[in-house]
Amino acid sequence: MMSQLVKLSKANVLGAANGIMFMTFFGALWSSIGIVGSHQLGAPWPLMLSAIVTLILLSGAISLFVKSRSIRHTVTPEEKEDTKQLNRKFGLIFGLEGVAIFLASVICQSLDHFELFFPIMAMIVGIHFFPLASLFREKFYYGTGGVLCLLGIISLNIPIDGTFGHVSLVPRSIFIGFGSSVTLWATGLRIWMMLRHKQKQAPHSHQH
Question: Which InterPro entries does the UniProt record give (predicted)?
Answer without folding.
Answer: DUF7010
